[in-house]
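It is worth pausing here to work through a concrete case rather than discussing structure prediction in the abstract. The textbook approach is simple: state the sequence, then state the predicted structure, then interpret. We follow exactly that order.
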Amino acid sequence: MDPQVRASKLDEVYEFVSRNARPTPSYLIGTRVLDLRSRDRRQIRRAVRHLLSQDNRFQEVHAGHWETLNHDYGGVPLEDAEFRVLDLEVTGSDPRRHAIIDVAVFGVCSNQVRPLLSSLVDPQIPIPPSIQRLTGISQAMVHGAPTFADLLPRLLKVLRGGIFVAHNAAFDYHFVKTWIERSTGDRFTTPHLCTVKLSQHLIETRSGGRKLHHLAVQLGIPLKNRHRAYDDAYATARILVELTTRLRERQVRTVGEMKLYESGVPLATKGDRDRDGNGKGSCPV
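Step two, the predicted structure:
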């Protein structure tokens, strides 16, 4: 595609997606803006992902649904980036019907890891027996814990200004986004990265696929209480440190390049990259 045509189309997509209150499906972007004629929705999704993932104004929220970002994060050097590593335990997989019961957030910057938030959450609905067995969190344990509304000001403060990171980030980000927007009535967007996707490009697993505890064991990272937010978020934060170290070895220098690497889109050559602001780390973590 001609560069000028490409830029014009991306601007059209930006305007189209920005007008929507909810994340926009790839199929609508492809057929209504990009004039893609294929009947194969998977092919359209791949084409849209290839185009939009190269523009820092866009982010795939979940399953081919896109939102626009107002965060100028692309040129931030990795050593300056402030990552917010989050893990949730929930009563089920649908954020419209299920609720959060456990949440933890760690800050990561310049390979330093520190806890920022950890709390059980009163879901105000029953916790299914299968979830109680999986997490070890009983109804009695969340009795008297803060509700999501109680915890929300702290959570927003912790997440503000950081790059959201989770293991299978599409799930955690979509869940948190849905609950924040439902509680505040305001649109919530923040750049996010997925340690599962990054590990697919950076770590050759011996066994067990990309599950958190298998990666933790392979990398020698302690994970004592699986399916508890604090322990899982800490393990994810340590995995993120390993991933960013490997990215630097591959000459990935900025968060924007990290996001491209996550998507599998080839990076530009070193001489073509924008290195603005690539100085020494200065983050407060």
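Step three, interpretation. The chain is about 40% helix and 15% strand. The chain has two domains: 3-70, 83-248.
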